[in-house]
Amino acid sequence: MQFSRAIAWALAMAAFWPVYESMPSFAAAAHGPVASAQPLAAQHEIPIVIGIRLEDHPDQSQIMLEFSDPVAARSFLLTDPNRIVIELPPVVWRPAETPSPSVRGFIRNYRFGMFRKDSARLVLDLNRPVKIDKSEILAPADGAGFRLVMDLSPATQPEFSARAGWPRGSNIALRESARPQGKAERDLPVIVLDPGHGGMDPGTHGETGLVEKDLALSVARRLKEKLEQTGRYRVKLTRDSDVFIPLRDRVAIARATHGDLFVSLHADSNEHREIRGASVYTLSPGASDREAATLAEKENHAGVALGLEPADANPMADSILSDLGQREIMNLSARFAEGVVAAIPAATALHSPLPHRSADFAVLKAPDIPSVLIELGYLTNHDDEMEMATEAWRSRVAGMITATIDHYFSGAAALQAAADHGEPSPLSGHNRGVRTPAGSPTPAQELTQ
After folding, report:
1. Could you check whether 31-178 and 188-448 share the same CATH topology?
2. Contact in structure between 119 and 93 (CB atoms under 8 Å)
3. Domain range list for the chain
4. What is the spatial distance between Cα 275 and Cα 270, in angstroms, rounded to a whole number?
5. Which fold is adopted by the domain 188-448?
6. What is the average pLDDT across 298-312?
7. Which of 52, 204, 184 is nearest to 124 (CA)?
8. Is the CB of residue 85 less than 8 Å from the CB of residue 170?
9. Residue-wise pLDDT tens digits, 396-445
10. Maximal CA-CA distance, the chain
11. Least buried of 17, 206, 234, 343, by fewest C-beta within 10 Å?
12. DSSP H or E run through 396
């Protein structure tokens, strides 16, 4: 998170970074319809498993684990019953999905969790003997993190038994391209896009049937594509399918991937159907107005109301807001939010009279990542809904946010240069609690020039 920390340092000169909240240990979980998940680890350095993919076919299978950081891993085979064990260092299990094995494939079941204090395991129970054709760890690419990939093919029982036994090695190699990256690639800012709602939580909906969860995911995918096309960012989605991700997990994913900016995408609703336009929300201990407070309450308890997450799902304690480092992160969040507000009119209608609001949004509480929530418009407004349903509007809005992110990080680069050379910060007061680079064109100007 080099960019975020550089800006916070330049603003505060001595920002205090809060200690990550401590969490209880995790007992091994058996795979069922949904496997259990471990709470966020106490230390940021512990790798987090953020994805499990299983492609299980009668003649071949592939298992993929996605990690926030590189890991040392080894695998071995055991008999009675036949199974594959992937042994890992201590990790936090936070997969967005736990796919079910195919009935006709090699894998009957799987389970994961901490095995001992110093190791974790994924155990694959097999329907038939297999051999491991290839296992390696791949470098981050296309928005994905480090990935452990294992390919399986059929084998006879004698072949399987001959290779089985407790490990004496069998390390999974780190592909050369997955070794520590060069400075230019490693220092690319990480943008975490958070499509709101998902799965059993649809969010709000419009008269024509347009659903918030689908709109948010569609815009997030277009935004990811546009950001990656610039070659200036690495991009991670908190969800890339129609699944429910608890608020705590969304924050955990952002921190696990070392995010430099977190953008949560939503659509709004209001009983007054004439109200329309996009708006931007940032975190504050108190709400800027009654509507912001109502929205934060609704978003914070959407999963609770459906029985999908506990009532205490707030990712961080409110007391963290008083910390100096968090205050500076909130300033950076406000700075980015003001950039979005300036750019919105070039792409879509702007909510009036308060396009930038603040409230106690749980999903914005990562203490070390500037975070905003963008309400793309009102699905309860006919004009907004008709526009949001079009591909042209979604592409235009994704382009607007991309331009705003470019503008934000160009300011970050200027801040870092000033800090490195001991020069005055190139920031000028723009609004209470908001700072923007002096003399720079707004994103809206960049879009129209």
Report:
1. no
2. no
3. 31-178, 188-448
4. 7
5. Aminopeptidase (3.40.630)
6. 54
7. 52
8. no
9. 999 999 999 999 998 765 555 554 544 433 332 223 233 233 333 344 44
10. 74
11. 17
12. helix 391-421
- Secondary structure element (H or E) that encloses residue 218, with its range: helix 212-230
At 315 the pLDDT is: 47
Tell whether omega for the bond before 315 is within 30 degrees of 0, i.e. cis. no
- Report the amino acid identity of residue 131: K
Instruction: Say which CATH architecture domain 31-178 belongs to.
Output: Sandwich (2.60)
Residue 393 has pLDDT above 90, yes or no: yes
C-alpha distances in Å from residue 255, one per residue of 185, 186, 365, 400, 410: 19, 16, 11, 25, 22
DSSP string of 70-138, one letter each residue: ---EEEEEETTTTEEEEEESS-EE--S--PPPPTTSSEEEEEEEEEETTEEEEEEEESS-EEEEEEEEE
pLDDT at 29 over 50: no
Residue 183 contacts by C-beta under 8 Å, 6 or more apart in sequence?
Answer: none
Distance between CA atoms of residues 7 and 179, nearest Å: 28
For residues 285 and 367, give the distance between their C-alpha atoms in angstroms, rounded to a whole number.
13
- Asked whether the beta carbons of 146 and 66 are under 8 A apart, the reply is yes
Tokens at residue 119, please? Answer: 């190791």
Q: Cα(38)–Cα(347) distance, rounded to whole angstroms?
A: 41
Give me the half-sphere count of Cα atoms (radius 13 Å) on the Cβ side of residue 322: 3
DSSP for residue 402:
H
Structure-token pair, residue 218: 């569609």
Nearest to 137 by CA among 179, 95, 96, 98: 179
Token pair in block for residue 353: 């009279």
Q: State the Cα–Cα distance between residues 283 and 331, nearest whole angstrom.
A: 10
